[in-house]
Every structure is written in structure tokens, then in C-alpha cells.
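ok so i was messing around last nite and threw this chain in just to see what happens. nothing serious, just curious
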Amino acid sequence: MNEADGSHQPAERSPWGVSGALLGLAAAFFLLVAFGLGLRGLLNLFALDEDGVGSRYAQLIAFQIAILIVPLAAVLVHGAPWSSLGIRPLSRRGLLLSVLLGIALSGATLAYVKGLELFYMPGYDAMQLEQNAQLDLLAGPKILLFITAVCIAPLCEELFFRAYLFGGFRERLGFATASGCAAALFTLVHFMPWSSPMLFLVGLGAAAVYERNNSILAAIAMHATFNFCELWMSWLFHS
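result:
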């Protein structure tokens, strides 16, 4: 546990460090480009509609696979244990606190939206456009959306942004800077300007529960809970 600041640290050191995290970030970018070009080529080859449900979800899943490959490859290349990615058991108390934090962050998001509606309508309208564009991208069978948003995305994104990037930054930069950098990259990838404050908070929250519980399962549980709450509210208010 301890250090000078008395915080909890992952039990295993991340052997890739800051330089490896940056290299992995570049590798993820090139994988995303390669996967995107490959998918587009297949869609054109078979004359498939790029806006169809299958095509859109194939692109979403390709993104998740691309960012998942990097941390898994890093462990294999360095011959590191899987615990270096925070793959460790999570206590029931840790799970409960992670779920509660996900719910709290969803509540804070709702308060943020209502605040924009009350005090800055142009920002509220812009955020609604962002949210509607996101819903259009994810339009399809609800079970497919649920699996992607609540199961696949939290798993892949937390292994990349928290276990890999935050883990690599953590030892050299310290918790605050490392969690902020990983959260900023997480926010940038999702690129929804008016939603950015809450996305950044989600990134910070995920790093905090990972740090406290020494298990990436805590970050995954928090992220999945947040996405579930947001999904449920979108179905509630847009159905």
C-alpha cells in the first residue's frame, strides 16, 4: 500500500512505463486506422451500406478490439504477469463501492445537463445534438447496444486506458498526473465537447477505484454501471 502520499498502488509494477504507454498509444492509433481501412474495403467489396446496423457495430467492435490488442500484447512482449494489468480478484465491498460511484457519476451527469438547461441553453442544445448523434450511431437492437455499451466497451476501454496507460504513467508521474492524462485521452477519444467534463470525471473515477482496490475489475464495474445508467436514461427519455 503506502508510498509517500499514502495511496494504494497496483501490486505489480507496469513494466512498460511511460515510454511503453506512449508507444502503445501510437500502436493503437495505427491499428484503428488499419482496421478502419480494412472494414471500409470489405464494405465496398460486398456493396454493404456503411450506415447499416451491422456495418456500424462492426466499426464499434473493431475499435474495441484494436485498443484491447495493445495491453494484451504488452503483457506478452514483456513476459509480465496478468496482474500487471490489474487482473486480480475484487472484494464484494470494492464491487459495491465501484457500482455506487458509477451511479453517482450518472447522477452528476444528469445534474450537469439540467444545469446547462437552466443556465446556458446554447450549451444544452449543443449537448443534446451530441447525445442524439451518439444514439443514432448506436441505433439498433437493444440487446446489441446493451452488450456493446455495458459489457464490451467497459472491459476493453478500462484495460487500455486505466490498466495500460494509467498503469504505465503511474510510477513516473504519480497518481494525480497519471490519472489526469489517462482521463484526458479517454475523453479525447470519445470526442463530445459538451460531454467532456463528465467523461473526464468518469476517467478520474475509474482510476481512483482501480488505485484503491488494486483490481481493474473495479474500474470495469464502475464504467459498466455508469454506461448502464446512461443507457437506461436514454431509453427512458427517448422512447
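not much to say yet. The chain has one domain: 17-238.
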